[in-house]
Amino acid sequence: MKVLLVEDDEPLAEALSAVLAEAGVLIEATASGTEADFLVQTERYDAVILDLGLPDGDGTRWLAQWREAGIDLPVLVLTARERWADKAAGFSAGADDYVTKPFETAEVLFRLRALVRRSHGHAHPVLRVGDLALDTHTGSVTLAGRPISLTSQESRLLAYLVHTAPRVVSRAELAEHVYDRDHEPDSNVIDVQISRLRRKLGSQRIETLRGQGYRLIDLDEAS
């Protein structure tokens, strides 16, 4: 999961980034609504965490512009404003969920995971592709009930394939959603990660479509 955090409170942004990174979330952060607007329109993210009280304008302004431009990625609003009128303004601008400061970082993580899961059409927190299961609450992966040990990059790559299954995902899309924009890998690095996942999950579980990309398949349905 790749998330843009827009928060001008530096200690809070650092603390929240650390917790999310520890949970396997790839975080890119900015304190500026102007920069966030540029990033949202030029990069791919799975979600945005947006503070409303930004130094260069109200967050609802940027959010409303994104929605008017057809940018529909999930947005979780963070704010110290407790009045219902302020919350209503956030929802009216296009927010998907709302957390009031101070908050538990664990709550932000749970809400964030739920937003991303639902944006891909999944209601249940445990996503299954055949006998492969991903618990979106914990990030754990099991195969036929057996726990699978994955590196952080393998976990992010597999999680994206699970969320998007059975859609074909291009190398470029994987790179944009799984890796930092300043360290996006070439296709060979992604091929290596896919090869390692196949060794752990089975060689036929991740299908390669030449010139298109990869997709995770249900082996029972494919047989």
From TrEMBL:
Q: Which InterPro entries match?
A: CheY-like_superfamily (IPR011006), OmpR/PhoB-type_DNA-bd (IPR001867), Sig_transdc_resp-reg_C-effctor (IPR016032), Sig_transdc_resp-reg_receiver (IPR001789), WalR-like (IPR039420), WH-like_DNA-bd_sf (IPR036388)
Occurrences of domain Response regulatory (ranges): 2-116
Pfam families recorded for this chain?
A: Response_reg, Trans_reg_C
GO biological process, any: regulation of DNA-templated transcription
Q: Name one GO molecular function term.
A: phosphorelay response regulator activity
OmpR/PhoB-type domain sequence ranges: 124-218
Q: Which PROSITE patterns does this one have?
A: OMPR_PHOB (PS51755), RESPONSE_REGULATORY (PS50110)
Keywords assigned by UniProt?
A: DNA-binding, Phosphoprotein
Q: Which Gene3D superfamilies match?
A: 3.40.50.2300, 6.10.250.690, Winged helix-like DNA-binding domain superfamily/Winged helix DNA-binding domain
What transmembrane ranges does the database entry give? none
Q: DNA-binding: is it a keyword of this entry? A: yes
Q: Which organism is it from?
A: Halomonas eurihalina
Q: Name one GO cellular component term.
A: protein-DNA complex
Positions of post-translational 4-aspartylphosphate modification: D51
Q: Does the keyword DNA-binding apply?
A: yes
Write down what this protein is called. Response regulator transcription factor
Mind listing where the DNA-binding region sits, in residue ranges?
A: 124-218
